[in-house]
User: Fold these one by one.
Assistant:
Number 1:
Amino acid sequence: MTLDIDRLLTTSDPTAVDDLYAEACRRRDAVYGRRVFMRGLIEVTSHCRNNCLYCGLRRDLQCTRYRLSKDQILDCCRTGHALGFRTFVMQGGEDAWFTDERVCDIVRAVKQEFPDCAITLSLGERGYDSFARLREAGADRYLLRHETADAAHYALLHPAEMHFEHRMQCLRDLRALGYQVGCGFMVGSPGQTLDTLKKDLAFIDEFRPEMVGIGPFIPASGTPFQHHPAGSVELTLRLLAIIRVMHPHVLLPATSALGTMHPQGRERAIAAGANVVMPNLSPQDTRALYSIYNNKLATGSEAAESAADIRARMKAIGMDVPSERGDFVGTSER
Ligand code: SAM
Ligand code: SF4
């Protein structure tokens, strides 16, 4: 299938869209089979020094903040391991408490207790030496969405003290250090155009990340973009499918933002070529405080409940959910 990206992003021909989804699933299945990998998401801190204009954790927002202790994080991993998770994703705001020393200590402790598990970090921008220390301590993967591949669009979404070039440099540093790297963006973020989306796709095509996280933008109360409309589920699904066709080996989550926007959002993402789900393993009492956008999914449910729910949903659409690390397979080469 040749990818006419302009047409695929704009067509109202349902057959063209169905063909795209079918091709995406064929390519995914040829690499990974009909399998969906689970990642246990642990939201380690809601403190953030940054002021991204779209995010409900931005520093200017007055809200109750929390951070998890090493013991709390280990407890989340214990619960997750018993539920069959073999990847833990530690995500949070850019919180100065999480020094290299503390993160390394936590990573080593998790690796020591769960040597069969992969650790993904998603703690925002850090320096090369910091990324190197965390990698040395045992972190396998790092998620850092590039947010947009267009510098002017980046400047519209972020305060002046945040720099597009630095974000891109972080991604290159992570790659050089041997991480499995994830980039990504929100669909429908303020200022996004067909042109900026095409730049995102061109960047992904060139960078060949091991993971790509995309989900609709959802407004967050109290942020400068609180009244901006949410991104489109349909467009997100098309983009997932295009990315799968472009890069069949990529690990592609059916994001919670999609699940928040549509009751069948994650199932539809799998039918468009996604192959990862990330149920929440965070303690029940902190989930509502990690409010990056409004009406976030499953804020009150227990880890076991979220995991059982997502497993059942995946099985119902004919996907297997193995208890495996689910590493990137193959090559990032084109
Ligand atoms: N602080 C780290 C960072 O920025 O990379 C990790 C946590 S941050 C909350 C994770 C991702 O959430 C961001 O990369 C962004 O794309 C997404 N996000 C933030 N605000 C959002 C919103 N209002 N709607 C949808 N996604 C959002
Ligand atoms: Fe902080 Fe990440 Fe939110 Fe930006 S997107 S304010 S870095 S948590």
Note: Residues 54-55, 57, 91, 93-94, 122, 124, 144-145, 147, 186, 215, 217-218, 220, 257, 292-293 surround S-adenosylmethionine (ligand 1) (CB under 6 Å).
Number 2:
Amino acid sequence: MKVNGKEYRSLWFDPDFPDRIFVIDQQRLPFSFLITELTSADDVFLAIRNMVVRGAPVIGAAAAWGLYLASMAMNSGKSVTGQLQQVADYLAKARPTAVNLKFALTFQINRISRNMSAGEITAQLKTGARIYSGQEVEACRSIGMSGLPIIQKAAEGKMGQSVNILTHCNAGWLACIDYGTALAPVYLAAEKGIPVHVWVDETRPRNQGALLTMWELQKAGIPCTLIADNTGGHLMQHGMVDLVLVGSDRTTRTGDVANKIGTYLKALAALDNRIPFYVALPSSTIDFDISDGIKDIPVEERSPEEVLSIRGLSGKEDISVRIAPENARAANYGFDVTPARLVTGLITERGICEASEKGLKSLFPDLMK
Ligand code: MRU
């Protein structure tokens, strides 16, 4: 996607600098546009944990590159594959909810074996990380094509007026290397000349909607309006939302969906107002090993500080201010689970399916045991 006329991805590898990867620092947007270089597995771990790199697909890709970077710093006295397995276990713990981390690391570990030399292992991991990142970009492009007909259909009843789409968190290209998940169909619809307007949930506590989704959509010239997190229900009651499009960090084989905290409440409001609620996700986000999202998906709990304070611009300074009394206690659950029964459909790289085991099996018979 373009930033000030130049094509960017949220993460990339430059063969001229084979000892590092480059990421857009999502902690600093939208007030500063900074590129950060990550040169070790520790750098990757911290970038994921501190949300310099965030969003399920891109953190999976970062982890894949993290293993490659680690392979160049291995102690040659010990088993390289054993050491890399330890690094993979470490990187997998950077954030617990998005299954993409585990998926990407397994993809990489499966490419290497004990009988390879250290150089061969590094070469395998480099190619693997390239393939993995490319597949994620392709999957997101295909999600856009799968989801486009939903927006086209919504547009048919609007007599030229904008299709109003509500989204939560940031499920755009920043979160996915390129295109996005929930935003991929929106970008494509806009490209095709379909008038769209996006209601952007601010997405407390870290405000990924206000800070990142608004920035992305503005850069793409897509009409968008920021709303406080509790506004969606009101808009839906007044016919101001045509459909809800969100992403996912982990989807069970039965179609339950974990996404940024607050997604579940939007799904409830959408059902009450008979508004379609779609979840867009690449297959790297599906956890085929689990069936009960509420019971089985680990929900990240982050620092209470993120709830007790808020980041913003004061003059030219990017600052954080406290918004609760001293000694206030706070709880910070990062994700919630929307049960499959509330989901109208899953938009994937292979098309749209019902949010159910049967639906997922119809699209992914090869991945579902
Ligand atoms: O905590 P974050 O910002 O990493 O959470 C991200 C989301 O919840 C996104 O909606 C999710 O990764 C969907 S796909 C881009």
Note: The chain has twelve helices and 18 strands.
